[in-house]
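Reminder to self: tokens first, then the designed residues, so the page reads top to bottom the way the pipeline ran.
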């Protein structure tokens, strides 16, 4: 048998179920792999050897019996108080819906995944835990705010991790780290015990190596079956403006080539209000978080985030109302688009993961901070609540992953998994099977 950590989520669960793999040995191998590889990444910032073994001893024979997973630093656990990547507790220890879903499925929580400070960034380079590195190059960002979850899966520390997505925070790190990440439909996973459960932009989602693993993990988190269909005969909506503009040329080519390889019918379209979606997403994200902040929280923030928060406090009701109007317009535009196509497709990120020391990216328009371009690519999904999945589609000349994002109507996670699985097969599964620790392009600088 392969090293237990190199098995997929499905393979780990099946091997434990048949007795081929002892779950205690799998758990020991998980902590050994974390110890071996995570020093350069800082992805699993808290480890639970005692609690994990207790979970294993009590685990029911569910679909993930004995399988170790990582949970983002935004969920209450009976023995852990989440921090949102900040110095203090964001909520007391206790139960969360995600904990109960994992427990009842027989899964074992091995540790906590790194989180960008307050969950308020797309790079993962700012956190009370320190920066989170990318498994393809630890000197580059793993993404935010679920960077630890994505990096841990990409480095094969665990086969699955839980993330959250308020403005792209599952899809963006998935793209940076070369894994598959799904933002579910708003409300599809219960949010009690989730520190950002107040937000109508946020959703929870799985991060796994491929779409089939993510489907299984998503079934556990949602508590419902996501039956397989045929991902081949799909109409793909391609909205060029603004999501296919000002991209790294290699990413644009890779995403176009992936759609061609899938053989999907293209439907060129435009979405009313698209030119305002980036600004609307920023307003909605920031304003919803402000009531949760305490004076001591602001004092703990880094200078840039503190200054941004103080600026946000000056937003007028008119600005907030304008963002709400744009949001309604975008929802109607998306609903109309799905009468003409089955999924929407555009690149998940406009450029590969930037360096931790200088989190800016090179675009045709020039060098720019990573956050604005990232939010442009993913904010639409949070404004509308529709599900979206990021699928690896190549390696950039820098050696870093590239990804295509697919989005579908509310409640159609199964359709997106079908599309992603077909895309993987159409590209020979080359990119979901790529291992950063054996790839020639891997570098530590």
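Designed residues (445 positions):
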């Amino acid at each position: 048998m392969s090293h237990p950590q190199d098995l997929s989520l499905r393979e780990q669960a099946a091997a434990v179920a048949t007795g081929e793999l002892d779950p205690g040995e799998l758990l020991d191998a998980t902590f050994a792999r974390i110890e071996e590889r995570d020093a350069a990444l800082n992805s699993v910032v808290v480890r639970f050897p005692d609690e994990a073994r207790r979970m294993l001893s009590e685990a029911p024979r569910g679909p993930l019996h004995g399988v170790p997973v990582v949970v983002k630093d935004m969920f209450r656990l009976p023995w852990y108080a989440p921090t949102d990547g900040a110095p203090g507790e964001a909520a007391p220890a206790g139960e969360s819906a995600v904990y109960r879903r994992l427990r009842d499925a027989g899964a074992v929580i091995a540790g906590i995944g790194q989180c960008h400070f307050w969950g308020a960034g797309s790079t993962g380079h700012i956190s009370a835990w320190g920066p989170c590195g990318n498994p393809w190059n630890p000197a580059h960002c793993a993404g935010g705010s679920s960077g630890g979850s994505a990096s841990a899966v990409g480095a094969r520390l665990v086969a699955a991790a839980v993330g959250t997505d308020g403005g792209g925070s599952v899809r963006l790190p998935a793209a940076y780290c070369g894994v598959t990440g799904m933002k579910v439909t708003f409300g599809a996973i219960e949010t009690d015990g989730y520190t950002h459960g107040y937000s109508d932009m946020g959703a929870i989602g799985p991060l796994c190596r491929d779409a089939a693993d993510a489907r299984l993990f998503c079934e556990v988190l949602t508590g419902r079956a996501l039956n397989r269909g045929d991902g081949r005969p799909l109409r793909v909506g391609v909205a060029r403006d603004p999501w296919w503009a000002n991209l790294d040329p290699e990413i644009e080519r890779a995403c176009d080539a992936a759609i061609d390889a899938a053989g999907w019918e293209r439907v060129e379209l435009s979405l009313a209000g698209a030119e305002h979606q980036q600004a609307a997403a920023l307003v909605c994200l920031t304003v919803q978080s402000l009531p949760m902040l305490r004076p001591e929280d602001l004092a703990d923030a880094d200078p840039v985030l503190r200054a941004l928060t103080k600026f946000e406090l000056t937003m007028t009701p008119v600005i907030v109302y304008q963002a709400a109007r744009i949001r309604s317009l975008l929802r109607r535009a998306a609903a109309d688009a799905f009468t003409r196509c089955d999924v929407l497709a555009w690149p998940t990120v406009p450029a590969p993961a930037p360096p931790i020391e200088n989190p800016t990216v090179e675009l045709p328009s020039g060098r720019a901070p990573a956050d604005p371009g990232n939010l442009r690519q993913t904010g639409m999904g949070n404004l509308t609540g529709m599900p979206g999945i990021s699928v690896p589609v190549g390696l950039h000349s820098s050696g870093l992953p590239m990804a295509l994002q697919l989005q579908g109507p509310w409640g159609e996670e199964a359709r997106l998994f079908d599309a992603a699985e077909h895309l993987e097969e159409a590209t020979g599964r080359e990119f979901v099977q790529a291992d950063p620790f054996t790839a020639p392009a891997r570098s530590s600088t």
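The radius of gyration is 20 Å.
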